[in-house]
Amino acid sequence: MTRKSDKNVRFDLPLRLGAATLGGYALCWSLFVLLCAWLPFSKATVWYFTGQLAPLPLLGVLLWAFAAHGAWRALLWPLALAAGLYLLVLIR
Amino acid sequence: MSPLGKALMGLHAWGGMIFSWLLIPVFITGSIAVFEPEVSQWMQPELTAHPTRPSNAVALAEAHLNEHASDQSFWRIRLPSEREPHIGVAWGKNPRQLHEETLDAVSGEPLHERETEGGHFFTHFHADLLLGAPGRWIVGAAGIVMLAALVSGILIHHRFFAEFFTLRPRAGKRRAWLDVHNLTGVASLPFLLMITYTGCVILAETFMPAATRALYDGNPRANRAEVVKSFERKPSGVPAGMLPLATHLAAAEAILGEGKVSSLLVRHPGDRNGLVQAYRHVDDRLAAVSDHVTFDAANGTLFGQQTEWNPMTYAYRAQVGLHTAHFGGLSLRWLYFLSGLLGALMMAAGTALLLRKRRQRAGEDRPQRLLDALGAASIPGSILASLAYLAANRLIPAETGGRETLEIAAFFSVWAITLIHALLRRRRAWHEQFVAASAACVLLALADTYSGGLVDAARRGVDLTLLATGALLFASSRRFFRTGDAT
User: Fold this and answer.
1) Residue B459 class from Cβ within 10 Å (0-12 exposed, 13-18 middle, 19+ buried)?
2) Number of CB pairs < 8 Å for A and B?
3) pLDDT band, very low/low/confident/very high, at A2 (cuts 50, 70, 90)
4) ipTM
5) With an 8 Å Cβ cutoff, are B315 and A48 in contact?
6) Is residue A49 part of a domain?
7) pLDDT tens digit string along B122-159?
8) Least Cα separation, residue B284 to chain A (angstroms)
9) Cβ neighbours for A8, distance < 8 A, ≥ 6 positions apart
10) In which domain, by residue range, is A40 found?
11) Could you tell me which residues come within 8 angstroms of residue B312 by beta carbon, excluding any fewer than 6 positions away?
Protein backbone atom coordinates (compact mmCIF):
# COMPACT_ATOMS: atom_id res chain seq x y z
CA MET A 1 0.00 0.00 0.00
CA THR A 2 2.94 2.35 -0.16
CA ARG A 3 3.63 4.39 -3.24
CA LYS A 4 7.38 4.51 -2.86
CA SER A 5 8.02 1.87 -5.50
CA ASP A 6 6.25 3.70 -8.29
CA LYS A 7 7.42 7.27 -7.67
CA ASN A 8 9.50 6.90 -10.83
CA VAL A 9 6.55 6.16 -13.07
CA ARG A 10 6.03 9.07 -15.44
CA PHE A 11 2.75 10.94 -15.05
CA ASP A 12 2.13 9.37 -11.63
CA LEU A 13 0.10 12.35 -10.37
CA PRO A 14 -1.88 13.03 -13.58
CA LEU A 15 -2.80 9.35 -13.80
CA ARG A 16 -4.02 9.33 -10.21
CA LEU A 17 -5.95 12.56 -10.71
CA GLY A 18 -7.52 11.00 -13.79
CA ALA A 19 -8.39 7.90 -11.79
CA ALA A 20 -10.02 10.01 -9.07
CA THR A 21 -12.10 12.15 -11.44
CA LEU A 22 -12.84 10.09 -14.55
CA GLY A 23 -12.70 6.74 -12.77
CA GLY A 24 -14.92 7.89 -9.92
CA TYR A 25 -17.44 9.55 -12.17
CA ALA A 26 -17.62 6.62 -14.59
CA LEU A 27 -18.01 4.10 -11.78
CA CYS A 28 -20.71 6.11 -10.04
CA TRP A 29 -22.57 6.68 -13.30
CA SER A 30 -22.60 3.03 -14.35
CA LEU A 31 -23.48 1.88 -10.83
CA PHE A 32 -26.50 4.19 -10.82
CA VAL A 33 -27.60 3.12 -14.30
CA LEU A 34 -27.35 -0.49 -13.15
CA LEU A 35 -29.39 0.20 -9.99
CA CYS A 36 -32.01 2.03 -12.05
CA ALA A 37 -32.27 -0.94 -14.39
CA TRP A 38 -32.30 -3.67 -11.76
CA LEU A 39 -33.99 -2.41 -8.62
CA PRO A 40 -37.61 -3.58 -8.55
CA PHE A 41 -39.07 -0.40 -7.01
CA SER A 42 -40.93 2.61 -8.30
CA LYS A 43 -38.93 5.17 -10.25
CA ALA A 44 -39.15 7.77 -7.48
CA THR A 45 -37.97 5.29 -4.83
CA VAL A 46 -34.95 4.36 -6.93
CA TRP A 47 -34.14 8.01 -7.68
CA TYR A 48 -34.22 9.06 -4.05
CA PHE A 49 -32.25 5.94 -3.08
CA THR A 50 -29.39 6.54 -5.52
CA GLY A 51 -29.36 10.24 -4.60
CA GLN A 52 -28.42 9.33 -1.05
CA LEU A 53 -25.56 7.07 -2.21
CA ALA A 54 -23.96 9.47 -4.67
CA PRO A 55 -20.95 10.54 -2.56
CA LEU A 56 -19.87 6.96 -1.76
CA PRO A 57 -18.50 5.69 -5.11
CA LEU A 58 -16.83 9.04 -5.74
CA LEU A 59 -15.22 9.02 -2.30
CA GLY A 60 -14.18 5.38 -2.57
CA VAL A 61 -12.48 5.81 -5.93
CA LEU A 62 -10.78 9.06 -4.83
CA LEU A 63 -9.22 7.27 -1.86
CA TRP A 64 -8.34 4.24 -4.02
CA ALA A 65 -6.74 6.49 -6.63
CA PHE A 66 -4.14 7.71 -4.14
CA ALA A 67 -3.77 4.53 -2.07
CA ALA A 68 -3.40 2.05 -4.93
CA HIS A 69 -0.03 0.48 -5.63
CA GLY A 70 0.84 1.81 -9.07
CA ALA A 71 -0.72 4.70 -10.93
CA TRP A 72 -1.91 2.69 -13.93
CA ARG A 73 -3.56 0.23 -11.59
CA ALA A 74 -5.24 3.15 -9.83
CA LEU A 75 -6.71 4.32 -13.12
CA LEU A 76 -7.58 1.03 -14.82
CA TRP A 77 -9.40 -0.71 -11.98
CA PRO A 78 -12.26 1.81 -11.57
CA LEU A 79 -12.58 2.15 -15.35
CA ALA A 80 -12.72 -1.62 -15.80
CA LEU A 81 -15.24 -1.92 -12.99
CA ALA A 82 -17.37 0.83 -14.53
CA ALA A 83 -17.26 -0.89 -17.91
CA GLY A 84 -18.20 -4.21 -16.28
CA LEU A 85 -21.22 -2.73 -14.53
CA TYR A 86 -22.30 -1.06 -17.75
CA LEU A 87 -22.04 -4.39 -19.58
CA LEU A 88 -24.38 -5.92 -17.00
CA VAL A 89 -26.94 -3.23 -17.88
CA LEU A 90 -26.60 -3.99 -21.58
CA ILE A 91 -26.92 -7.77 -21.05
CA ARG A 92 -30.23 -7.28 -19.32
CA MET B 1 0.69 6.12 11.26
CA SER B 2 -0.83 3.19 9.38
CA PRO B 3 0.67 2.34 5.96
CA LEU B 4 -2.62 3.37 4.35
CA GLY B 5 -2.48 6.65 6.20
CA LYS B 6 1.07 7.20 4.95
CA ALA B 7 0.00 6.56 1.36
CA LEU B 8 -2.84 9.05 1.71
CA MET B 9 -0.75 11.77 3.38
CA GLY B 10 -0.19 13.63 0.09
CA LEU B 11 -3.89 13.61 -0.75
CA HIS B 12 -4.79 14.70 2.78
CA ALA B 13 -2.28 17.54 2.97
CA TRP B 14 -2.21 18.90 -0.58
CA GLY B 15 -5.77 18.03 -1.61
CA GLY B 16 -6.96 19.39 1.70
CA MET B 17 -5.06 22.65 1.37
CA ILE B 18 -5.89 23.36 -2.27
CA PHE B 19 -9.59 22.74 -1.71
CA SER B 20 -9.53 24.53 1.64
CA TRP B 21 -9.12 27.81 -0.27
CA LEU B 22 -12.70 27.21 -1.38
CA LEU B 23 -13.97 25.08 1.52
CA ILE B 24 -13.07 27.60 4.22
CA PRO B 25 -15.19 30.38 2.63
CA VAL B 26 -17.93 27.79 1.97
CA PHE B 27 -17.88 26.74 5.65
CA ILE B 28 -17.82 30.32 6.93
CA THR B 29 -20.72 31.42 4.72
CA GLY B 30 -22.56 28.18 5.50
CA SER B 31 -22.24 28.84 9.22
CA ILE B 32 -23.61 32.36 8.76
CA ALA B 33 -26.39 30.94 6.56
CA VAL B 34 -27.74 29.00 9.56
CA PHE B 35 -28.91 32.41 10.77
CA GLU B 36 -30.15 33.61 7.39
CA PRO B 37 -33.41 35.27 8.63
CA GLU B 38 -31.63 36.96 11.54
CA VAL B 39 -28.93 38.35 9.22
CA SER B 40 -31.66 39.55 6.83
CA GLN B 41 -33.35 41.28 9.73
CA TRP B 42 -30.03 42.94 10.65
CA MET B 43 -29.58 44.06 7.05
CA GLN B 44 -33.09 45.51 6.82
CA PRO B 45 -33.60 47.77 9.85
CA GLU B 46 -36.90 48.88 8.26
CA LEU B 47 -38.43 45.49 9.13
CA THR B 48 -40.60 45.44 12.23
CA ALA B 49 -41.16 42.64 14.72
CA HIS B 50 -44.61 42.52 16.32
CA PRO B 51 -46.25 39.38 17.64
CA THR B 52 -49.61 38.65 16.03
CA ARG B 53 -52.12 35.87 15.40
CA PRO B 54 -51.95 34.03 12.05
CA SER B 55 -55.62 34.75 11.30
CA ASN B 56 -55.07 38.51 11.72
CA ALA B 57 -52.02 38.38 9.47
CA VAL B 58 -53.92 36.49 6.78
CA ALA B 59 -56.80 39.02 6.87
CA LEU B 60 -54.33 41.91 6.50
CA ALA B 61 -52.56 40.18 3.62
CA GLU B 62 -55.87 39.43 1.90
CA ALA B 63 -56.95 43.08 2.12
CA HIS B 64 -53.63 44.18 0.61
CA LEU B 65 -53.86 41.64 -2.22
CA ASN B 66 -57.50 42.53 -2.98
CA GLU B 67 -56.48 46.15 -3.30
CA HIS B 68 -53.33 45.69 -5.41
CA ALA B 69 -53.55 42.31 -7.12
CA SER B 70 -57.21 41.41 -7.70
CA ASP B 71 -56.52 40.72 -11.41
CA GLN B 72 -53.53 38.38 -10.87
CA SER B 73 -53.42 34.59 -11.31
CA PHE B 74 -51.35 33.80 -8.21
CA TRP B 75 -51.20 35.14 -4.67
CA ARG B 76 -48.75 33.91 -2.08
CA ILE B 77 -48.83 34.79 1.61
CA ARG B 78 -46.01 33.95 4.00
CA LEU B 79 -47.34 34.05 7.56
CA PRO B 80 -45.28 35.77 10.25
CA SER B 81 -43.13 33.38 12.26
CA GLU B 82 -40.88 33.73 15.26
CA ARG B 83 -37.83 34.17 13.04
CA GLU B 84 -39.53 36.29 10.36
CA PRO B 85 -42.09 38.33 12.29
CA HIS B 86 -43.65 40.14 9.33
CA ILE B 87 -46.03 39.23 6.51
CA GLY B 88 -44.70 38.37 3.07
CA VAL B 89 -47.10 38.86 0.16
CA ALA B 90 -46.41 38.13 -3.49
CA TRP B 91 -48.46 38.15 -6.66
CA GLY B 92 -48.16 37.72 -10.43
CA LYS B 93 -49.15 35.77 -13.54
CA ASN B 94 -46.24 33.31 -13.29
CA PRO B 95 -45.79 31.46 -9.96
CA ARG B 96 -42.02 31.44 -10.46
CA GLN B 97 -41.74 35.21 -10.94
CA LEU B 98 -43.91 36.88 -8.34
CA HIS B 99 -43.70 40.49 -7.25
CA GLU B 100 -42.95 40.47 -3.52
CA GLU B 101 -43.68 42.91 -0.69
CA THR B 102 -43.31 42.82 3.09
CA LEU B 103 -46.07 44.07 5.41
CA ASP B 104 -46.07 44.97 9.07
CA ALA B 105 -47.67 42.09 11.00
CA VAL B 106 -50.00 44.33 13.02
CA SER B 107 -50.87 47.31 10.81
CA GLY B 108 -50.59 45.58 7.44
CA GLU B 109 -48.73 48.60 6.06
CA PRO B 110 -45.97 47.94 3.46
CA LEU B 111 -42.56 48.24 5.12
CA HIS B 112 -40.62 49.40 2.03
CA GLU B 113 -37.47 47.68 3.30
CA ARG B 114 -34.23 48.34 1.45
CA GLU B 115 -33.30 46.19 -1.54
CA THR B 116 -30.82 43.53 -0.43
CA GLU B 117 -30.08 39.85 -0.78
CA GLY B 118 -29.73 39.90 3.01
CA GLY B 119 -28.72 36.68 4.69
CA HIS B 120 -29.70 34.74 1.57
CA PHE B 121 -26.47 35.88 -0.10
CA PHE B 122 -24.50 33.69 2.32
CA THR B 123 -26.72 30.67 1.64
CA HIS B 124 -26.46 31.28 -2.10
CA PHE B 125 -22.66 31.63 -2.07
CA HIS B 126 -22.38 28.58 0.18
CA ALA B 127 -24.42 26.43 -2.21
CA ASP B 128 -23.14 27.45 -5.65
CA LEU B 129 -20.74 30.45 -5.33
CA LEU B 130 -23.42 32.49 -7.21
CA LEU B 131 -22.45 30.56 -10.36
CA GLY B 132 -25.52 28.33 -10.74
CA ALA B 133 -24.96 24.78 -11.98
CA PRO B 134 -21.18 25.15 -12.62
CA GLY B 135 -20.84 26.41 -9.04
CA ARG B 136 -22.64 23.33 -7.73
CA TRP B 137 -20.19 21.13 -9.66
CA ILE B 138 -17.26 23.00 -8.08
CA VAL B 139 -18.65 22.92 -4.53
CA GLY B 140 -19.65 19.28 -5.02
CA ALA B 141 -16.10 18.34 -6.07
CA ALA B 142 -14.74 20.23 -3.07
CA GLY B 143 -17.19 18.31 -0.86
CA ILE B 144 -15.97 14.93 -2.14
CA VAL B 145 -12.34 15.97 -1.53
CA MET B 146 -13.37 17.12 1.95
CA LEU B 147 -14.84 13.67 2.67
CA ALA B 148 -11.64 12.05 1.43
CA ALA B 149 -9.56 14.41 3.58
CA LEU B 150 -11.68 13.50 6.62
CA VAL B 151 -11.37 9.75 6.05
CA SER B 152 -7.64 9.94 5.31
CA GLY B 153 -7.27 12.22 8.34
CA ILE B 154 -8.78 9.51 10.55
CA LEU B 155 -6.28 7.00 9.13
CA ILE B 156 -3.37 9.41 9.58
CA HIS B 157 -4.24 10.56 13.10
CA HIS B 158 -5.43 7.17 14.27
CA ARG B 159 -4.37 7.94 17.81
CA PHE B 160 -6.73 10.85 17.76
CA PHE B 161 -8.55 10.08 20.98
CA ALA B 162 -5.30 10.58 22.83
CA GLU B 163 -4.59 13.68 20.78
CA PHE B 164 -8.04 15.03 21.52
CA PHE B 165 -6.92 15.81 25.05
CA THR B 166 -3.78 17.52 23.88
CA LEU B 167 -3.49 21.24 23.35
CA ARG B 168 -0.13 22.85 23.92
CA PRO B 169 -0.46 26.45 22.84
CA ARG B 170 2.86 27.35 24.47
CA ALA B 171 4.76 24.54 22.82
CA GLY B 172 6.53 25.04 19.51
CA LYS B 173 4.53 26.66 16.70
CA ARG B 174 4.35 23.48 14.64
CA ARG B 175 3.16 21.43 17.57
CA ALA B 176 0.58 24.06 18.48
CA TRP B 177 -0.84 24.12 14.93
CA LEU B 178 -0.97 20.34 14.87
CA ASP B 179 -2.80 20.31 18.21
CA VAL B 180 -5.35 22.88 16.98
CA HIS B 181 -5.82 20.89 13.77
CA ASN B 182 -6.32 17.59 15.62
CA LEU B 183 -8.45 18.95 18.43
CA THR B 184 -10.89 20.88 16.23
CA GLY B 185 -10.90 18.04 13.70
CA VAL B 186 -11.77 15.38 16.26
CA ALA B 187 -14.21 17.54 18.20
CA SER B 188 -16.22 18.32 15.09
CA LEU B 189 -15.57 15.06 13.19
CA PRO B 190 -19.11 13.59 13.40
CA PHE B 191 -20.58 16.95 12.45
CA LEU B 192 -18.14 17.42 9.57
CA LEU B 193 -18.80 13.93 8.17
CA MET B 194 -22.55 14.51 8.41
CA ILE B 195 -22.63 18.04 7.00
CA THR B 196 -20.25 17.25 4.14
CA TYR B 197 -21.99 14.02 3.19
CA THR B 198 -25.46 15.58 3.22
CA GLY B 199 -24.16 18.61 1.33
CA CYS B 200 -22.80 16.31 -1.39
CA VAL B 201 -26.15 14.48 -1.51
CA ILE B 202 -27.93 17.79 -2.15
CA LEU B 203 -25.46 18.82 -4.87
CA ALA B 204 -25.39 15.36 -6.48
CA GLU B 205 -28.76 16.13 -8.05
CA THR B 206 -26.78 18.52 -10.29
CA PHE B 207 -23.40 16.85 -10.70
CA MET B 208 -24.49 13.20 -10.90
CA PRO B 209 -27.63 13.11 -13.09
CA ALA B 210 -27.22 9.41 -13.99
CA ALA B 211 -30.49 8.33 -12.36
CA THR B 212 -32.34 11.33 -13.76
CA ARG B 213 -31.12 10.36 -17.24
CA ALA B 214 -31.91 6.69 -16.80
CA LEU B 215 -35.37 7.11 -15.25
CA TYR B 216 -36.74 10.46 -16.40
CA ASP B 217 -34.96 11.19 -19.73
CA GLY B 218 -32.91 13.83 -17.94
CA ASN B 219 -35.89 15.95 -16.87
CA PRO B 220 -34.68 17.29 -13.50
CA ARG B 221 -38.14 18.13 -12.10
CA ALA B 222 -39.79 14.83 -12.96
CA ASN B 223 -38.72 13.06 -9.77
CA ARG B 224 -40.26 15.78 -7.61
CA ALA B 225 -43.44 15.84 -9.68
CA GLU B 226 -43.81 12.12 -8.99
CA VAL B 227 -43.67 12.40 -5.20
CA VAL B 228 -45.17 15.85 -4.48
CA LYS B 229 -48.87 15.61 -5.24
CA SER B 230 -50.21 18.53 -7.18
CA PHE B 231 -53.80 19.73 -6.91
CA GLU B 232 -54.47 22.20 -9.69
CA ARG B 233 -57.16 23.04 -12.22
CA LYS B 234 -57.67 25.49 -15.03
CA PRO B 235 -59.55 28.76 -14.37
CA SER B 236 -63.17 28.64 -15.54
CA GLY B 237 -63.44 32.29 -16.53
CA VAL B 238 -66.57 32.55 -14.37
CA PRO B 239 -66.07 35.03 -11.53
CA ALA B 240 -67.01 33.91 -8.02
CA GLY B 241 -66.53 35.25 -4.51
CA MET B 242 -64.04 33.55 -2.21
CA LEU B 243 -64.48 32.56 1.41
CA PRO B 244 -62.27 34.74 3.62
CA LEU B 245 -58.71 33.35 3.64
CA ALA B 246 -58.88 33.22 7.45
CA THR B 247 -61.63 30.58 7.07
CA HIS B 248 -59.41 28.52 4.77
CA LEU B 249 -56.54 28.95 7.24
CA ALA B 250 -58.68 27.58 10.08
CA ALA B 251 -59.67 24.57 7.95
CA ALA B 252 -56.01 24.00 7.04
CA GLU B 253 -54.95 24.21 10.69
CA ALA B 254 -57.54 21.55 11.54
CA ILE B 255 -55.60 19.16 9.28
CA LEU B 256 -51.98 20.37 9.57
CA GLY B 257 -52.02 21.45 13.21
CA GLU B 258 -52.72 24.73 14.97
CA GLY B 259 -50.07 27.38 14.24
CA LYS B 260 -48.37 24.99 11.79
CA VAL B 261 -49.27 26.72 8.51
CA SER B 262 -46.30 28.58 7.05
CA SER B 263 -47.74 29.92 3.83
CA LEU B 264 -50.80 30.06 1.57
CA LEU B 265 -50.89 29.93 -2.21
CA VAL B 266 -54.05 31.11 -3.97
CA ARG B 267 -54.50 29.98 -7.57
CA HIS B 268 -56.87 32.05 -9.74
CA PRO B 269 -58.34 34.28 -7.00
CA GLY B 270 -61.86 35.46 -7.79
CA ASP B 271 -62.49 32.64 -10.29
CA ARG B 272 -65.07 29.88 -9.77
CA ASN B 273 -62.18 27.37 -10.06
CA GLY B 274 -59.97 29.22 -7.59
CA LEU B 275 -57.96 27.09 -5.12
CA VAL B 276 -56.32 27.87 -1.79
CA GLN B 277 -53.32 25.72 -0.86
CA ALA B 278 -51.80 25.77 2.63
CA TYR B 279 -48.24 24.55 3.33
CA ARG B 280 -47.04 23.23 6.67
CA HIS B 281 -43.91 24.44 8.49
CA VAL B 282 -40.82 22.24 8.14
CA ASP B 283 -39.21 23.50 11.35
CA ASP B 284 -40.44 20.76 13.71
CA ARG B 285 -39.39 17.67 11.77
CA LEU B 286 -36.10 16.32 10.52
CA ALA B 287 -37.18 15.72 6.92
CA ALA B 288 -37.53 18.88 4.86
CA VAL B 289 -40.95 18.01 3.43
CA SER B 290 -43.93 20.30 3.63
CA ASP B 291 -47.35 18.70 4.07
CA HIS B 292 -50.02 20.60 2.18
CA VAL B 293 -53.81 20.81 1.79
CA THR B 294 -55.85 22.46 -0.95
CA PHE B 295 -59.39 23.82 -0.70
CA ASP B 296 -61.92 25.09 -3.22
CA ALA B 297 -61.58 28.88 -2.79
CA ALA B 298 -65.30 29.59 -3.24
CA ASN B 299 -66.96 27.02 -0.99
CA GLY B 300 -64.13 25.62 1.14
CA THR B 301 -64.51 21.94 0.24
CA LEU B 302 -61.34 19.86 0.48
CA PHE B 303 -59.79 19.52 -3.00
CA GLY B 304 -56.73 17.46 -2.07
CA GLN B 305 -54.12 16.92 0.61
CA GLN B 306 -50.72 15.32 1.10
CA THR B 307 -49.51 14.38 4.56
CA GLU B 308 -47.84 11.10 3.62
CA TRP B 309 -44.65 10.66 1.67
CA ASN B 310 -42.78 8.02 -0.24
CA PRO B 311 -40.50 6.61 2.53
CA MET B 312 -37.36 6.86 0.39
CA THR B 313 -38.19 10.47 -0.47
CA TYR B 314 -38.69 11.12 3.22
CA ALA B 315 -35.27 9.60 4.01
CA TYR B 316 -33.63 11.69 1.28
CA ARG B 317 -35.34 14.85 2.49
CA ALA B 318 -34.19 13.97 6.03
CA GLN B 319 -30.62 14.29 4.74
CA VAL B 320 -31.56 17.68 3.29
CA GLY B 321 -33.14 18.62 6.63
CA LEU B 322 -30.02 17.50 8.51
CA HIS B 323 -27.98 19.83 6.33
CA THR B 324 -30.22 22.91 6.42
CA ALA B 325 -31.01 22.63 10.17
CA HIS B 326 -34.49 24.13 10.08
CA PHE B 327 -35.49 21.62 12.75
CA GLY B 328 -34.29 21.70 16.34
CA GLY B 329 -34.62 25.35 17.22
CA LEU B 330 -32.18 27.92 18.47
CA SER B 331 -29.74 25.72 20.40
CA LEU B 332 -29.25 23.43 17.41
CA ARG B 333 -28.59 26.44 15.16
CA TRP B 334 -25.85 27.62 17.51
CA LEU B 335 -24.38 24.12 17.55
CA TYR B 336 -24.30 24.07 13.74
CA PHE B 337 -22.87 27.60 13.63
CA LEU B 338 -20.04 26.78 16.05
CA SER B 339 -19.32 23.35 14.58
CA GLY B 340 -19.10 24.83 11.08
CA LEU B 341 -16.64 27.45 12.26
CA LEU B 342 -14.64 24.76 14.10
CA GLY B 343 -14.45 22.94 10.78
CA ALA B 344 -13.13 26.08 9.09
CA LEU B 345 -10.61 26.47 11.91
CA MET B 346 -9.52 22.85 11.51
CA MET B 347 -8.86 23.42 7.80
CA ALA B 348 -7.10 26.72 8.50
CA ALA B 349 -4.78 25.04 11.03
CA GLY B 350 -4.04 22.24 8.56
CA THR B 351 -3.19 24.80 5.88
CA ALA B 352 -0.92 26.70 8.29
CA LEU B 353 0.80 23.45 9.19
CA LEU B 354 1.50 22.48 5.58
CA LEU B 355 2.65 26.01 4.66
CA ARG B 356 5.07 25.97 7.57
CA LYS B 357 6.42 22.55 6.69
CA ARG B 358 6.94 23.53 3.07
CA ARG B 359 8.65 26.79 4.03
CA GLN B 360 11.16 24.94 6.20
CA ARG B 361 12.07 22.80 3.20
CA ALA B 362 11.81 25.23 0.28
CA GLY B 363 12.23 28.62 1.93
CA GLU B 364 10.50 31.75 0.65
CA ASP B 365 10.42 30.76 -3.00
CA ARG B 366 7.86 32.08 -5.44
CA PRO B 367 5.34 29.20 -5.12
CA GLN B 368 5.55 29.51 -1.34
CA ARG B 369 4.58 33.18 -1.55
CA LEU B 370 1.62 32.35 -3.77
CA LEU B 371 0.46 29.53 -1.47
CA ASP B 372 0.81 31.83 1.54
CA ALA B 373 -1.22 34.54 -0.18
CA LEU B 374 -4.00 32.15 -1.21
CA GLY B 375 -4.17 30.87 2.36
CA ALA B 376 -4.46 34.38 3.74
CA ALA B 377 -7.13 35.33 1.20
CA SER B 378 -9.18 32.24 2.04
CA ILE B 379 -8.96 32.51 5.84
CA PRO B 380 -8.89 36.12 7.11
CA GLY B 381 -9.70 37.32 3.57
CA SER B 382 -13.07 35.62 3.28
CA ILE B 383 -13.97 36.85 6.79
CA LEU B 384 -13.11 40.41 5.71
CA ALA B 385 -15.16 39.99 2.52
CA SER B 386 -18.21 38.87 4.54
CA LEU B 387 -17.78 41.84 6.87
CA ALA B 388 -17.46 44.15 3.86
CA TYR B 389 -20.81 42.83 2.64
CA LEU B 390 -22.39 43.77 5.99
CA ALA B 391 -20.63 47.15 6.06
CA ALA B 392 -21.78 47.96 2.52
CA ASN B 393 -25.32 47.31 3.69
CA ARG B 394 -24.99 50.19 6.13
CA LEU B 395 -22.86 52.50 3.94
CA ILE B 396 -24.92 52.37 0.72
CA PRO B 397 -27.99 54.61 1.18
CA ALA B 398 -31.23 52.65 1.62
CA GLU B 399 -32.93 54.15 -1.44
CA THR B 400 -30.07 53.60 -3.92
CA GLY B 401 -31.19 51.68 -7.01
CA GLY B 402 -29.48 48.33 -7.59
CA ARG B 403 -27.92 48.46 -4.14
CA GLU B 404 -28.15 44.69 -3.63
CA THR B 405 -25.68 44.24 -6.52
CA LEU B 406 -23.37 46.85 -5.00
CA GLU B 407 -23.35 44.97 -1.68
CA ILE B 408 -22.31 41.76 -3.45
CA ALA B 409 -19.70 43.72 -5.43
CA ALA B 410 -18.30 44.92 -2.09
CA PHE B 411 -17.89 41.29 -0.98
CA PHE B 412 -15.95 40.25 -4.07
CA SER B 413 -13.88 43.44 -4.37
CA VAL B 414 -12.71 43.25 -0.78
CA TRP B 415 -11.95 39.57 -1.27
CA ALA B 416 -9.81 40.40 -4.33
CA ILE B 417 -8.10 43.20 -2.36
CA THR B 418 -7.18 40.78 0.44
CA LEU B 419 -5.47 38.53 -2.13
CA ILE B 420 -3.50 41.45 -3.62
CA HIS B 421 -2.64 42.67 -0.13
CA ALA B 422 -1.44 39.20 0.82
CA LEU B 423 0.74 38.98 -2.31
CA LEU B 424 2.30 42.37 -1.53
CA ARG B 425 2.69 42.09 2.24
CA ARG B 426 3.67 38.41 2.27
CA ARG B 427 3.44 36.74 5.68
CA ARG B 428 2.67 39.99 7.50
CA ALA B 429 -0.66 39.98 5.65
CA TRP B 430 -2.08 37.27 7.95
CA HIS B 431 -1.64 39.38 11.05
CA GLU B 432 -2.81 42.58 9.38
CA GLN B 433 -5.93 40.99 7.95
CA PHE B 434 -6.85 39.33 11.23
CA VAL B 435 -6.51 42.66 13.05
CA ALA B 436 -8.50 44.45 10.33
CA ALA B 437 -11.25 41.81 10.53
CA SER B 438 -11.45 42.04 14.30
CA ALA B 439 -11.63 45.86 14.13
CA ALA B 440 -14.34 45.63 11.45
CA CYS B 441 -16.39 43.26 13.65
CA VAL B 442 -16.26 45.63 16.61
CA LEU B 443 -16.99 48.73 14.50
CA LEU B 444 -19.99 47.10 12.82
CA ALA B 445 -21.40 45.92 16.14
CA LEU B 446 -20.98 49.33 17.79
CA ALA B 447 -22.34 51.22 14.77
CA ASP B 448 -25.47 49.06 14.72
CA THR B 449 -25.95 49.19 18.47
CA TYR B 450 -25.82 53.00 18.46
CA SER B 451 -28.17 53.27 15.48
CA GLY B 452 -31.12 51.44 17.02
CA GLY B 453 -29.89 47.84 17.02
CA LEU B 454 -30.75 47.38 20.68
CA VAL B 455 -34.51 47.36 20.12
CA ASP B 456 -34.53 44.23 17.97
CA ALA B 457 -33.66 40.75 19.30
CA ALA B 458 -32.26 39.46 15.99
CA ARG B 459 -30.06 42.53 15.50
CA ARG B 460 -28.87 42.34 19.11
CA GLY B 461 -27.87 38.73 18.53
CA VAL B 462 -25.93 39.58 15.37
CA ASP B 463 -24.19 42.48 17.13
CA LEU B 464 -23.14 40.37 20.10
CA THR B 465 -21.89 37.64 17.76
CA LEU B 466 -19.86 40.24 15.85
CA LEU B 467 -18.33 41.50 19.11
CA ALA B 468 -17.41 38.00 20.25
CA THR B 469 -15.97 37.18 16.82
CA GLY B 470 -13.94 40.38 16.89
CA ALA B 471 -12.48 39.49 20.29
CA LEU B 472 -11.61 35.94 19.17
CA LEU B 473 -10.01 37.13 15.93
CA PHE B 474 -7.94 39.66 17.86
CA ALA B 475 -6.80 37.09 20.42
CA SER B 476 -5.82 34.57 17.74
CA SER B 477 -4.02 37.25 15.73
CA ARG B 478 -1.88 37.95 18.79
CA ARG B 479 -1.21 34.31 19.61
CA PHE B 480 -0.66 32.82 16.20
CA PHE B 481 0.06 35.57 13.71
CA ARG B 482 2.22 38.13 15.46
CA THR B 483 4.03 40.33 12.92
CA GLY B 484 7.10 38.70 11.47
CA ASP B 485 6.59 35.09 12.49
CA ALA B 486 3.17 34.40 11.01
CA THR B 487 2.21 30.76 10.52
Assistant:
1) buried
2) 106
3) very low
4) 0.92
5) yes
6) yes
7) 999 999 999 999 999 999 999 999 999 999 998 887 66
8) 22
9) none
10) 29-91
11) A41, A44, A45, A48, A49
